[in-house]
Amino acid sequence: MALPDDSTSPASASSTHDVVVRRSPRYVRFIVVGAVVAILATLVLTFVFPEQPNYSRAQVFGFVGIILVTVFVGLAAAIAVVVDRLSSRRARTIVMTTSERVEAPVDQNAAVDQKAPVDQNAPVEETRED
Fold it and tell me: pTM value?
């Protein structure tokens, strides 16, 4: 059965592509987990050892926290990179078919924005902000 030739119906064009599909880690989540673990380790280390007369617990928490957060975030990012490399070994190649709808040409005079009609005779209001 043949379809009627209607010039207003959209035509479709399709093509195929080879696409590599793989899972990859979310780097931000690894980094956030590294920072949280570092803060918890800092909290434990701050209160396990006795307080020094030269430094308050808040100062020790700050100093140790800066060092541990830097180290743990770096380690977490390195682990994320290793997991990403390992996941690339399990990558699969699949064939993807895309279809694109091609619309019929529209009359140039009818191409006016239908959402917001413009009144050509309406006065233009100017606003000044000083």
Answer: 0.57
